[in-house]
Prior knowledge:
Elements: H1 3-20, E1 21-25, E2 32-36, E3 43-46, H2 49-71
Amino acid sequence: MCYAMVAMFTDYVRHVMQKLAKYELIHDEQPYYGSVRGFQGVWAQGKTLQECERNLREVLEEWLLLKIRKLA
Protein backbone atom coordinates (compact mmCIF):
# COMPACT_ATOMS: atom_id res chain seq x y z
CA MET A 1 0.00 0.00 0.00
CA CYS A 2 1.44 3.38 -0.92
CA TYR A 3 2.03 6.14 1.62
CA ALA A 4 -0.90 8.25 0.36
CA MET A 5 -3.33 5.36 0.79
CA VAL A 6 -2.03 4.62 4.28
CA ALA A 7 -2.40 8.29 5.21
CA MET A 8 -5.99 8.37 3.87
CA PHE A 9 -6.84 5.19 5.78
CA THR A 10 -5.33 6.56 8.99
CA ASP A 11 -7.17 9.88 8.59
CA TYR A 12 -10.46 8.07 7.99
CA VAL A 13 -10.03 5.88 11.08
CA ARG A 14 -9.18 8.95 13.17
CA HIS A 15 -12.25 10.78 11.86
CA VAL A 16 -14.58 7.84 12.53
CA MET A 17 -13.19 7.39 16.04
CA GLN A 18 -13.67 11.08 16.84
CA LYS A 19 -17.19 11.35 15.42
CA LEU A 20 -18.82 7.94 15.90
CA ALA A 21 -17.11 6.14 18.78
CA LYS A 22 -19.14 5.97 22.00
CA TYR A 23 -17.96 4.72 25.38
CA GLU A 24 -19.74 3.60 28.51
CA LEU A 25 -19.01 2.01 31.85
CA ILE A 26 -20.42 -1.47 32.38
CA HIS A 27 -20.33 -3.93 35.27
CA ASP A 28 -17.60 -6.25 34.04
CA GLU A 29 -13.98 -7.23 34.62
CA GLN A 30 -13.14 -4.77 31.85
CA PRO A 31 -15.54 -1.95 32.71
CA TYR A 32 -15.02 0.28 29.68
CA TYR A 33 -17.07 -0.63 26.62
CA GLY A 34 -16.82 1.14 23.30
CA SER A 35 -18.60 0.82 19.97
CA VAL A 36 -18.72 2.66 16.69
CA ARG A 37 -22.17 3.77 15.55
CA GLY A 38 -22.99 2.50 12.07
CA PHE A 39 -20.29 -0.20 12.02
CA GLN A 40 -22.02 -3.46 12.94
CA GLY A 41 -19.91 -5.69 15.16
CA VAL A 42 -17.26 -3.07 15.90
CA TRP A 43 -16.93 -2.95 19.68
CA ALA A 44 -14.25 -3.46 22.32
CA GLN A 45 -13.63 -3.40 26.05
CA GLY A 46 -10.75 -2.36 28.28
CA LYS A 47 -9.69 -1.95 31.87
CA THR A 48 -9.12 1.76 31.23
CA LEU A 49 -10.69 4.19 28.79
CA GLN A 50 -7.36 4.46 26.95
CA GLU A 51 -7.11 0.68 26.62
CA CYS A 52 -10.69 0.49 25.38
CA GLU A 53 -10.05 3.21 22.81
CA ARG A 54 -6.89 1.48 21.61
CA ASN A 55 -8.73 -1.85 21.33
CA LEU A 56 -11.66 -0.22 19.54
CA ARG A 57 -9.37 1.47 17.01
CA GLU A 58 -7.72 -1.90 16.29
CA VAL A 59 -11.09 -3.60 15.77
CA LEU A 60 -12.26 -0.79 13.49
CA GLU A 61 -9.07 -0.99 11.41
CA GLU A 62 -9.39 -4.77 11.03
CA TRP A 63 -13.11 -4.46 10.17
CA LEU A 64 -12.36 -1.88 7.47
CA LEU A 65 -9.50 -3.92 6.00
CA LEU A 66 -11.74 -7.00 5.77
CA LYS A 67 -14.37 -4.95 3.95
CA ILE A 68 -11.72 -3.60 1.54
CA ARG A 69 -10.38 -7.11 0.87
CA LYS A 70 -13.89 -8.34 0.04
CA LEU A 71 -14.17 -5.59 -2.59
CA ALA A 72 -10.90 -6.53 -4.27
